[in-house]
Amino acid sequence: MRFGLIWQEATTGLRRNVSMVISVVLVTFISLTFVGTAVLMQMQIGQMKNYWYDKAQVAIYLCTADSTDETCTGGEATDDQKASVETDLTSPAIAPFVDKFYFEDHQQAYDNFQEQFKDNDLAQLVTPEQLNETYWVNLKDPSQSAVLSEAFSSKQGVQSVTDQRQYLDSIFQALNVASYTAIGIAGLMLIAAVLLIATTIRLSAYSRRKEIGIMRLVGASNRFIQTPFVLEGVFAAVIGSLLAGGAILAIVHFFVDGYLAPSAQFVNFVGLQDAFIVIPLLIVVGVVLAALSANFAIKRYLKI
After folding, report:
1. Dist. CA 247–CA 249, nearest whole Å
2. Mind listing the pLDDT tens digit for each residue in 212-254?
3. pLDDT tens, position by position, 35-72
4. Helix 165-207 and helix 18-55, axial crossing angle in degrees, nearest 10
5. Cα-Cα end-to-end distance for the chain
């Protein structure tokens, strides 16, 4: 019976404040959609880091005839200098860090350059001799690239040693900025949702102040009076959370799986299984924030 009365009071409040409830639903929906998107972006960044960092190579660029570095005083790297680099790569000091390596000569570097920049006018101005011959090295642990840099940077015939991870870092940094921006927007929207829920509860309580006074006179407990108002906020937040969950599923299904994945098959994108992990989180966040803000509003402003 008591539950029936509580539910009746909650539904009465929802009917009286339909427009405000719709506002709460929409704000919660938008804010939690941003939260879910930000979480998926962080999951995507984590997957990409694990994939690309493991594949990142260290490039040992050999001197060309035009190189002016201190280690290139003799012009283009000689056969003896190339053999010395390869010997060091297979030496007991370096070999334990190396998974595999291969050599790329001028012609191979030129062919790869032409393929990469085939639509760029710059490709027509480059000759094979201008491109470095290179030893491409895959490390067992990509984070230990400093070992190769220390071993080969000052070696005669070597122009430079470059870790490809430095290029990946800038890409992931940009993705992190986008993710943090989404989190920031989501945070502002969640604050707006909390304030709107509190305002809705205050208006609902004010419109029923006579009923509340009667309930207090007949001995109703504070918890009994507060619960319908809390349920109003939680109901609106649950609807908004479910809509946000649906939006996240739609984004993953239509945009990620339907567009990004087919056009970039070399990237392991987040999928529906990841979305189904995020959705319960959104519902929990929505319910907790709604319950806390509604409970605070009814205690703070009605002084029950």
Report:
1. 5
2. 666 666 666 666 667 777 777 788 888 889 999 999 999 998 8
3. 888 888 888 877 777 666 666 788 899 999 888 888 88
4. 170
5. 22
Which is nearest to 60 in space by CA: 144, 130, 179, 154?
154
pTM above 0.70, yes or no: no
Partners of 163 in beta bridges: 58
Say if residue 147 is in the same domain as residue 82: yes
- Same domain? 34 vs 65: no
Alpha carbon distance 226, 253 (integer Å): 41
If asked whether residues 257 and 272 sit together in one domain, one would say yes
Q: How far apart are CA 179 and CA 181, in angstroms?
A: 5
Which domain does 31 fall in, by range?
3-53+169-302
Name residue 138's beta-bridge partners. 57, 100
The CA-atom distances, in angstroms, between 184 and each of 38, 92, 180, 248 are: 9, 50, 6, 18
Q: Which two structure tokens, joined as six digits, stand for 98?
A: 């190396």
| Beta-carbon count within 10 A of 285 CB | 20
- d(CA 196, CA 92) in angstroms, rounded, equals 67
Q: What is the DSSP string of 203-262?
A: HHHHHTHHHHHHHHHTT--HHHHHHHHHHHHHHHHHHHHHHHHHHHHHIIIIIIIIIIHH
